Amino acid sequence: MPEITGAGESQPEPVTPETIRPVRRPLLTMQWRDLAFLHWPVDTGAAARLMPPGARPDLFHGVSYAGVIAFRMHDVGAPGLPALPYLGSFPETNVRLYSVGPDGRRGVVFCSLDAARLLPALLGRAAVRLPYQWSGMRVRRRGDVISYASRRRWPRAGARLQLALRVGEPLDRPSDLEHFLTARWGLHAVWYGGRVRYLPNEHPRWPLHAATLVCLDEDLLATAGLPAPAGEPASVLYSPGVAVRMGASGPASGEGRLDPAHRLRDLAEAVSARLDGRFRRLGA
Questions:
Q1: Cβ(65)–Cβ(267) under 8 Å?
Q2: pLDDT in tens, the chain (284 residues)
Q3: CATH C-level class of 28-259
Q4: Alpha-carbon distance 62 to 233, whole Å?
Q5: Residue ranges per domain, the chain?
Q6: What is the reported pTM?
Q7: Is 235 within 8 Å of 180 (Cβ atoms)?
């Protein structure tokens, strides 16, 4: 079973295939479709450096993991209203780590999120302070092989993903590790004012399939500040998808504020992005 705490740390909540905190009043509904889950062990110190204040890496038998998750976002909208046309459906790929908050709630920390629509990427950066990037992307399926491709456009162009996997049989009984890497019911993120917030989600139990890696060429992990993978993924999974309800963010118990180094880094990135945009317009 998953780990695990050090002295003085709160005990992580159980890993459960279904949420133990239903989202009563969702702000958004959506579907996540055709998901590829790729995971590698990652140095725990490297993961810890990317955690928000107060959160720590979640460990499975002493090991921290980094994931590349490629999928299609579909029919994003508000509850009771039609899904957004065009803007509500697009490919997305995220790089994520696994976290435990100061109150023991398990979640994920996003190092980057590439989206194929510019406006949702801008809204994600502004509204929930997530590191969204605008990328050219596509998802294709031929028989039992599904492929994902992306190349980042903004705010810093170049990072890429080329991925194909062969979908296998459904997993009737996913392993403890497979549950650990997929059954995540919220995310930890730094909010305005330096507050760490927890954003919950709810969806049915993941329908997971075994999958075989056909090809992979990526630099998303290294671009996000993580060590480049040293070999093949430790876990490769596929899911046809789930319907999702996203709840309102709330404080992470015992949360901290950003230290000056974090604030200076965020300010430098914001200034760099603005200058980059202006120079691009001048050169157009």
A1: no
A2: 455 444 346 899 999 999 999 999 999 999 999 999 999 999 999 999 999 999 999 999 999 999 999 999 999 999 999 999 999 999 999 999 999 999 999 999 999 999 999 999 999 999 999 999 999 999 999 999 999 999 999 999 999 999 999 999 999 999 999 999 999 999 999 998 889 999 999 999 999 999 999 999 999 999 999 999 989 999 999 999 999 999 999 998 744 444 444 444 444 444 454 445 444 554 54
A3: mainly beta
A4: 18
A5: 28-259
A6: 0.87
A7: no
Spell out the SS3 assignment of the chain: CCCCCCCCCCCCCCCCCCCCCCCCCCCEEEEEEEEEEEEEEECHHHHHHCCCCCCEECCECCEEEEEEEEEEEEEEECCCCCCCCCCCCEEEEEEEEEEECCCCCEEEEEEEEEECCHHHHHHHHHHHCCCEEEEEEEEEEECCEEEEEEEEEECCCCCEEEEEEEEEEECCCCCHHHHHHHCCCEEEEECHHHCEEEEEEECCCCCCEEEEEEEEEECHHHHCCCCCCCCCCCEEEEEEEEEEEECCCEECCCCCCCCHHHHHHHHHHHHHHHHHHHHHHHHC
The β-bridge partners of 278 are: none
Q: What's at 162, amino acid-wise?
A: Q
Any residues with CB less than 8 A from the CB of 232 and at least 6 apart, and which? 213
- The answer to whether 42 touches 227, Cβ cutoff 8 Å, is yes
Residue 81 zone, left/alpha/beta (φ > 0; ψ -120 to 50; rest): beta
Q: Return the amino acid letter for 235.
A: S
